[in-house]
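A favour, since you know our structure tokens better than I do. It will help me judge whether the discrete encoding reads sensibly. The space below this message is yours for that.
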Amino acid sequence: MLDHLGIQVADFDASKAFYDAVLAPLGAKRMMEFPGVAGYGVTKPDFWLGPVTVDVVQREVHVAFSASDRATVIAFHEAGVALGAEVLHAPRLFPEYHPDYFGAFLRDPDGNNIEAVCHLPAL
């Protein structure tokens, strides 16, 4: 349903450093960059960072990135922890969502709830 998603960031350089690190284990990288705007993806840029354009209180955004396996979820979590990101939920099963839902949740530099999730059963 979605082709791409963009979020506004207050500190572009801090956000690029955060997303460069936490998206790398997921196989994603910064694919495009223009002044104040960066696009991340695996095959095309489908997650974008852009500047704050309105003077209002930002509401928290939740973005969940697909992980190919549980080890990748753990690597995402470890990359965020290494940067000092707030851990909202360490990697674990969330059976209340479904029996194989394995995810980790971090807070990005702008306070957003960022998740990596694998829906596959453990090997």
